[in-house]
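pinned: reference chain
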Amino acid sequence: MKTGRGILGIAALIAATLPAAGCSTACPAIGYVSGLEVIVEGDVAAVDEVQLCTDEGCSAPGPTAAPAPSVAVTDHWVQLPNGGFSPAPGPSVPPPTYPDTRYIGNRAGDNTWKFTFILGPVPTNITLRALADGGSVVAEQENDLEWSREVPFNPCPGPISTPPVVFMVGER
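pinned: its structure tokens
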């Protein structure tokens, strides 16, 4: 009987001293990207672009990178310092340029746009604008967003998400 109480006492002592011993959760230094999906319904044919706006400004289309140059056999070769040869450098491809905004939007399908929020807090109130080919506003809609953690019980910060927003264009 005494042996059982001793084991229980040691287990209780270990359980009580573990938090005091400095056990903590080390969170990785990772930046999480939050996004929003917008589904356009109604007169989708009239919409050329969807723009997301807040008090801080409106979204811009994401960058498009030029295609990477293909490696081709060339008559121009450079001798390497340790022996061997390498194709001579060709024309360089400039890196993509990013718009000066916190919100990047890209068409993801016939009636779907995806927006990425860069740095800072995510918006809780947005205005969506459907733009025609010439840039005129076809429709406008305000939405409140409710964000939730994707892994609710994780002690470290992580990605958050909100349900897709349905944007009605045309008659309601």
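why pinned: The longest strand covers residues 34-42. The CA atoms of residues 130 and 136 lie 8 Å apart.
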